[in-house]
Amino acid sequence: MATRPKIKPKPTAATRKKWPGDRDAEVAVAARESGAEPYHQPLRDRLHKVKEVDAVYVSTDDAGIVHVYSIVRDFGDFYERLAKQEHLAQQDCPDVDFEFHVRAHQGRKPYMAVPFESNPVFVR
User: Fold this and answer.
1) N or C: which end of the chain has fewer CB within 10 A?
2) What is the rounded radius of gyration, in angstroms, for the C-alpha atoms of the chain?
3) What 8-state DSSP symbol labels residue 110?
4) How far is 58 from 17, CA to CA, in rounded Å?
5) Can you say how many angstroms the Cα of residue 98 is from the centroid of all Cα atoms in its chain?
6) What is the pLDDT of residue 76?
7) Other CB atoms closer than 10 Å to residue 95's CB: what's the count?
8) Cα separation, 55 vs 34, whole angstroms
9) Cα dihedral 116, 49, 92, 79 sign
10) Residue 93 has pLDDT above 70, yes or no
11) What pLDDT sits at residue 17?
12) In degrees, to the nearest 5, what angle opens at C-alpha 28 toward C-alphas 42 and 14?
């Protein structure tokens, strides 16, 4: 007797997290789970466009400066595109003082390339 092939259900808002190949869903899940600050959405929208960026983490220092860590696999030829998106994120949030950093994870988990107190904005 032949068995029926299993049919995968289409992802819904509740199940999208379970589909590992869906990067936009992973970004959306990270956004919901991070307890997002108002500047997280512009950072997510802008920096997600640079395909080399695997994750973005933020931390705030005592002076109120928001340090933004763009995590990449290795350093490369993407700085102009990244700088353009960083500039647009700054324009989206003129009241926030950003300081942008680029860190290479070199195959490690992205969170290992940022300061301990940093919070995720998105992780691919």
Assistant:
1) N
2) 17
3) G
4) 22
5) 16
6) 82
7) 6
8) 13
9) positive
10) yes
11) 42
12) 150
* Tokens read off for 4: 């029926």
pTM: 0.69
Query: What integer pLDDT is reported at residue 74 of this predicted model?
Result: 85
Residue position matching structure tokens 């190949």: 21
How would you classify residue 41: left for phi > 0, otherwise alpha for psi between -120 and 50, otherwise beta? alpha
44 membership: H or E segment, kind and range: helix 40-47
Average predicted confidence (pLDDT) for the chain: 78
H helices present in the chain, as ranges:
23-33, 40-47, 79-92
Instruction: Find tokens 């307890």 and name the residue.
Output: 35
Report the pLDDT averaged over residues 90-113.
90
**How would you list the strands of the sheet with 98-104, edge to edge?**
98-104, 66-72, 53-60, 119-123
